[in-house]
Amino acid sequence: MTNLLPEMAEIWQQTLNWQPSVQQQTQLQKLYELILEGNRQQNLTRIVEPQEFWEKHLWDSLRGIAPLLSANFYPASPAIIDIGTGAGFPGVPVAITVPNCTITLLDSTRKKIIFLDNILNELALTNAKTIVSRAEEIGQHPQHRRAYDIALIRAVGAASVCAEYTLPLLKQGGLAIIYRGNWTKEETTDLQNAVNQLGGVIELIEKFTTPLSDSIRHCLYVRKVANTALNFPRAVGVPSQKPL
Ligand code: SAM
Q1: pTM greater than 0.85 (yes/no)
Q2: Contacts of 34 (CB under 8 A, 6+ apart)
């Protein structure tokens, strides 16, 4: 198997109106190689074939933050957090492509964070840092609560759980971006109910397909419009066991 990522300049351009610079392409390639290497020590991802990795990890990560890739996004240097980042998605591709952001990569599994510390070091990504903790804990921590402009969350749980993890961490006016595959009307009702309690509004539910395999995706954009009550997020484990 060749480990060379496809460049896909045209698809980047057509779908995101953006293309990686030579340096960014080199960093994305290196990220891919480090993940393949890390996969030998721990189970990081089953997506290892170059085209599939490009589509399901790199393109998918960046599709969610399409608004940030445009030049007029405000604020220009956003503070971002990626909750339950795992092997670094969507956070690491975001750190590579939005160099003026600062990004915190959070995961409750120490082994994954140790792996990510090495990635950040190897890619010389000085705009990213890692934390081993749970979303329920840092959501109540004065240093993190209401500290972020954007909170990203992919494949961590039901959308209402994701809302409870993300909204307390956002500044008022901040944006939670919840990455999903399929999506139903019932889930919109549940999410609506959760964000009402958390000080958020659903700003946009965007449906799209991935550019190579035509797989269905949804991105949910939830804006924080009011303070989140202090009882949220609830204690560790409660949001996922008793979703709002
Ligand atoms: N976001 C990555 C992706 O899309 O490839 C990883 C998804 S993985 C299925 C879920 C990750 O979320 C795991 O690494 C897990 O340790 C982490 N996680 C789950 N619940 C969490 C919580 N309450 N706080 C922090 N991390 C959590």
Answers
A1: yes
A2: 118, 119, 122, 123
